[in-house]
Amino acid sequence: MRKKILFLSQVYPYPADGGGKIKTLNSLKTLAKDFDVYAIFISEKKPLKKDIEYLKKIGVKKIKVFYNLKILASVKDDYPHLIMNFLKLRPHYVFQYTFAPAFSYIKNAVSSYKPDIIHIDHINIAQYLPKEKNEVWILEHHNLEFYLLWTRFLYSSKWSRKLYLLIESVLTYLFESKKIKQFDFVFTISQEEAERSKRFFGIRNVSAQPLVYPTITIKKKLSLNPHLLFIGGLGWPPNEDAIEWFINQMFPIILEKIPNVELHVVGKDNPILTHRLPKHTNIFLHGYQKDITPFLQKADIFILPFRMGGGVRIKSLTALSAGVPIVSTKLGVEGLKVKNNTHYLEANTEIDFANSVITLLKSKKMQDKMSKNQTEYLTENHSKKLNRKWLDEYHFWSTYPHKKNRS
User: Fold this and answer.
1) Which of 314, 316, 320, 402 has the greatest number of beta carbons closer than 10 A?
2) DSSP conformation letters of 180-216
3) Is the whole model's pTM more than 0.70, yes or no?
4) Nearest to 116 by CA among 406, 387, 400
5) Which residues pair with 285 in a beta bridge?
6) Which domains does the chain have, with CATH numbers?
7) Does residue 15 have a cis bond before it (omega within 30 degrees)?
8) Which residues in the chain land under pLDDT 50?
9) Residue 102: which of 67, 61, 52, 53 has the closest Cα?
């Protein structure tokens, strides 16, 4: 008899147009093969009927979506509410996903569905766990949230933002530390995150969940000018910092050596950031695109100039799968087993990053070799066969919750 999972998530994962959604959708597809899954989402977006039908098609038995406008509300628009919650020691990351109707619904779902496992996708949704523990509790931890906030604090320059991020990171650490210890097992997005979880929270039952990503067949198209590509929603602070850092510090150096180089940025627009960025005829902000294939086809180099964040940037897998040569900071490819000078070029300062882009643009031979290495890497390390390995481990922990202190 198939066991039952109550799957609780902060994001409706279809269409899978972002890193977190891609990961959540793969988890649902995989779990639905061996378990009966009842999925409940507290979402910033109302899914269309066809989006609901897609999850049913992949095997999710029952679906409930709570649409909460508060998720997208700006902190700047509600300082009194923010201060009130901070005084209650509740981080914004938690209370922005606090939705009163969802608490009673989930409580009733636990009572009526009687799941064998409660699967929490993103730790802020752990606030919806029942008060009494009668099931196996498993956490799918996309990022150590306090660590991500801390890196943002380090690289933010505005004093008011730094103060907010300092308070938010401390409160998030307290919440994360308390909640993560309640789970029977924790799956992290990378081995680095697993080690951080052990180090910062003292948990033992934790391992890295394999990242599965399909190989994309891309028919390259030659463009008149060299193309640099960045993909990512500009409303997400690590993306915002990455592209602003690149445009202000690295791009002018590259332009001096290669005047006709073009930078193409694909992702949800951020009007505040757009207003700050210098206007240049060689920079193209395309906004959100349903199909990124045309941009990957023309890209000569995929840039990952990241200074903030943790876990894994799924966009790095997008570049690898399409065979687009990468220039990245160490953080940009963290969590992957890629090798510098084989699968990407690593550069962690402005001048090194710019020079690496220039070197790669001037060497078609280096680009072709890197592209071939990337395809081989993806097949070996991120193929669908890894889902079976994850399912086997998942079955183990769902069957033997008494092994909680196993190392």
Assistant:
1) 320
2) HTT-SEEEESSHHHHHHHHHHH---SEEEPP---PPP
3) yes
4) 400
5) 265
6) 4-212+384-403 (3.40.50.2000), 227-381 (3.40.50.2000)
7) yes
8) 402-407
9) 67
